[in-house]
Amino acid sequence: MIRVPNDLLGRMIDSGKDAITTATRSGPGGGFIDWNAWVGERIKPSAEEQATLEQGGILVPGPKSVKLTRELQGEFGELDSVGATVLFVRGEVH
User: Fold this and answer.
1) Does residue 3 fall inside a structural domain?
2) For the chain, what percent of residues have pLDDT higher than 90?
3) Is 25 within 8 Å of 33 (Cβ atoms)?
């Protein structure tokens, strides 16, 4: 991530949404880097996947109805799972 717009926080607050992110790229023209923030039906990890998570591993969203942040429409995407590079959670919700 190279820069954050000066008005980003204000725009996030003004969105009225509870838990949001904005798509983040690795640099100008670079690829999207948020793979841990998504919206959709959550999969339940297997026992093996849960053990991997508990040891600091990752679980990438699987075959259910999931959209990654790069697929969301609009300026900000509401989330069902967080882990985003730029994350806003309204205090009353947290």
Assistant:
1) no
2) 6
3) yes
